[in-house]
Amino acid sequence: MGKSLLSGLATVVLTGGALVGTTLPAQADAPTTLYVRQNPVGGCSDQYPGTLEQPFCTIGAAAAIVTGGQTVDIGGGNYQERVTIGTSGTPEQPVTFLTTSSSAATLVGATAGFVIDGQHDVVLQNLRVVGSGDVPALDAHNSSGLTIRGGTYGLNMSATSPVIRFAGVTSSSLSKITVRGLTASTGITMDAASSDVAIQDTSVQGYANYILADNTVGVRIDGPRNSYIGGSIAGFTNAAIALGPAAAGTVVANNVISGGAGHGVHNNGATGTAIANNTINNRCQDGIRVDGASSGVSVQNNVLALNGHFDLAYCDNKALDGVEIGVYGGAVGKTVVDYNNAHHYNSNSPEIYAWNTRMSLAAFRAASGQAAHDRETGQARDNIDSANSAAPGYPTLARGGSPRIDDPGVPNTGAGPVTYADRGTVEAVRSPEVRFDVAMNIQARSVTVDASASLPGLNPIASYQFTFGDGSTVTQTNPIASHTYANPGAYQIGVTVTGTDGRSGTYSRRISMLRPTGTVGLRALSNRRYVSYETGFGLRPNQAEPSTIAQFDLADAGNGKVALFSRAVGRYVAVSQFDLATLTADSVLVDVHETFTLVRNGDGTISLQAPITNKYVTADVDSAVPMSASVSTIGTWEKFLQVVVPDANRSLKAKVNSRFVSADGAGTKPLIASAATASSWERFDVVDVGNGQVGLLARVNNRFVSADGAGAKPLIAGASAASTWERFTMVRSSDGTVSFKAAVNNKYVSADGAGSKPLIANGSVISTWERFTLG
User: Which of 131, 194, 231, 277 has a Cα-to-Cα distance from 366 of 20 to 30 A?
Assistant: First the structure.
């Protein structure tokens, strides 16, 4: 085949005198990134090309030339400018403004912020605006495809403009940003022309108090098919989330809405709203309010608590009385309410719902036909596996992206395809719940910790770790552990329960292991009965003997104070913190409410003066009446005989003749060691009368033994009180016997005449006649 004559020659085209051909240089590709930096090493200029080596100084310079597919990389620092973005991108190649710096790129000043008007496919990422004027930090109009991701947007305290304003914005998203509305401004507003805007994982913060602001809203939605999901809102005085009449098909789900003077969610005329799986608490007005011409609204799977005026400081400026869930006006009969958990501030305030008027949950069910599965509860455990997964707006994943988990320890009471979804924002993965009781013995300085009542989490309990506060730690599979302390003191006991999945729960409490000074029975002078303690019945003088429930360890509480430790329950006696009078024995820690002043009365009795009020413990003669610390002066009912428990109801056998000492004639005759057996006439209580001295109280007549005639006459059980003649020092000898030295004459009590004569305090030394055996 022959060659063409033009074969091997370059082809040229002449057009308008210009030579176009392969000899022209190729056009340079546009850079994918424009750089903005402050004070770089080589300097910056808005006349530079915007490369990393020659960056712009301002964001506005980059915004003026950026095109679709390009990224404006903004370095850290403060930028005093308001940036208008006048260029659009495409979904595949958006216009992007971001910072990759570890320090914040912050727009500051009176007009600080971003303006987007009539553009589409624009991304703002990880940027910060702190405006000191009264214009929105982000103002977008008639735009679409906007992606606002990461960063913080806020205004100053006096600003009234919304922080972020969307007008005519469609098919856009805000995610993982923080909005600070401060005092008088609203956080985010979307007008009636804004639609299909998704706000996700976004925190909106404002002031809660009416005194500082009025009529502010966290997120206001007025257009159709918008959503606020997975966010958190605190503060704002009109509502955390407000939905206007044109807001059709809105989803409000997985949000945590906390303290503020306004409503939690206010659906005012919006139709088809799905309010699902939110956690709302501490709002001064209604937690969720649906009113106006609202219809087709679904309120399901929400957890609400402590909403409505109940003495919150930021509610005080207005008289409010909100409910947890309220449906009013035209919304009545057009709203679905079900599978919510609600709890008000106490059990005496059951009117926590409203169907035009406040009412209880039961009345709400009857009036509305709704809320069949709602629960009046504040227990987190009641949220588990009980939601309706078929509810409009139900989020497949819980807040934070957690999957739904079936807890085998909780019955599945939910509805829909996933019967084990949880109510509220959290899909609970239960850790073990620590519950333990403490049994103390201050005489032995020992403690037993019983964690058997602990509850497993999602998986069975594998181990229990006990810490006793003195450096001792025990880890075991047994839920019960005991420990003995080397010294008295205050100790913190901790228990950690760990499941087979490694999840654990921990709880601790402090105990006081005080030094005991003796075990006593308190015999009330009002009725001569011993004081006992029984759980549920309090302290009462109702025991004939100092039995187990009537034994108390006296303990040194320091500073001249004493504590009473009930041996029956292993707890300290305390004055109630609520009425400062009622006595209980339920404390393991000794503080001000567990300390008493022990008053020694002149008649050998004691009185107990309570802390704070300085009132005296009183024992009503009617033993059915619980004792209290409620009397200002000491009378008969405020006096107690302090009987050392081992020396209660004892007999005295004279060593000289092996006969028992008898209060002869039922106490009308002098004491004599003449009885072969110990019956009622031969029984005595050894009473601690202070200063190391004791009194002998004859059981037969409840009278003190007296060294009559200042010791010159035989002993007789005839005194109603323990004065000088009725006081003795009990001396214990190495052979196990005891002797009694009369305080009145310092002579020992003697079984005179080798026991053939009445007892008399006339012995100068301890011999056989002065020795007695306690039986």
Answer: 277
